[in-house]
């Protein structure tokens, strides 16, 4: 299907030698596609505590919110209500500004 994801990020300060960002990743699709999804599993970089995160919140577009200092590829499994899965890779871009 080629489901689309998007993200927002904003700098929230510094930790040690790194700029630190708050960010969110979400399914960027229309409500009729969101309604077909049961859950979204995000596999973050191995340096995150609990790198496997799951969202079952359709109303938030299956958002994942976190923070960190660098961009990386997120490996995503979309689980549909019909029992099928879709594997997606999404590159977290810390330059995508939060909407106003």
Please give a structural write-up.
It is a single chain. A hairpin with an 8-residue loop joins strand 3 and strand 4. The strands form 2 sheets. The protein has a 4-stranded antiparallel sheet, with no helix packed on it. It has one domain: Immunoglobulin-like (Sandwich), CATH 2.60.40. With 100 residues, it is mostly beta strands. It contains 1 helix and 7 strands. The protein is globular. The protein starts with a strand and ends in a 9-residue tail after the last strand. The longest helix is centred in the first third of the chain and has 4 residues.
Low-confidence runs of at least 5 consecutive residues = none
- Strand portion, in percent? over 45%
Distance between the termini: 30 Å
Q: Could you give the order of the helices and strands? A: EEHEEEEE
Report the count of strand segments: 7
Q: For the residues shown, what is the average pLDDT?
A: 95
User: How are the strands of the biggest sheet laid out side by side?
Assistant: 4-3-6-7
Biggest sheet, open or closed, and with what strands and sense?
Answer: 4 strands, antiparallel
Which second-level CATH architecture applies? Sandwich
* CATH class group: Mainly Beta
| Class by SSE composition | mainly beta
- Tell me the number of structural domains: 1
The total of helices stands at 1
Annotated CATH topology: Immunoglobulin-like
Shape: globular
Question: CATH homologous superfamily name?
Answer: YEATS domain
Our Rg estimate from Cα atoms comes to 14 Å
Helix content: under 10%
